[in-house]
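Schema walk-through. Below, the input block comes first and the output block second. Nothing else is stored per chain. Lengths vary across the set, and this one has 209 residues.
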Amino acid sequence: MQSAERKTWRWIALAAAYFAALTALVQSHALHRFDYHTTFWLNSHGNRFMDWVMSLFTATATPELSMALCGALVIFLWWRFGWRPAACLLVAFVGGTMLEVVLKNCITQPGTRGLINRYVFGEGWIHITLPYAFPSGHALRAFLLIGVIALWVMPRAAVFWWALAGLASVSRLYLGHHWTTDVMGGALLATVLLMIIGTQIKPRETAAC
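--- output ---
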């Protein structure tokens, strides 16, 4: 294994370790006070206009749109870089979703529903009720799929795409659908998956299209 590849896998291991540590802290309820204050502080600055804006941002990472976007990105990666990164993205999307479901059944962090809800739209076609809230699937999908766009589809507009991923994630706090650590967990898990996808793309292929 080359030195650059070993370094990448070290970063992957480090990000995975941070995710595991955050998961342990959430399970022990050590960050409950932090969650409560940060989420309610952001929500306290709300108004009706921001409710609509943040609802639109959160809608960009719904399961329905995410599956359609994932399919399009798989096709693009296959065409641009070959089958390995395309297959890796598909496995990351499906595997990440499965891990999200498992953790939301195991990590006993109750959600914020019933305490806050500023979302102005109804539930989508795909809606599964899970017992707990960690990690945020919206943050996971936003950083994973929009991250692929920022890194390998439109790298020249990366700042815009990363900002969109960030706003889609923050919207979950503002709307009252997740605690801060839920969003952090989703973003960290997406970071691990993005770096794994990156190992399947050769350095010469990462130039802007």
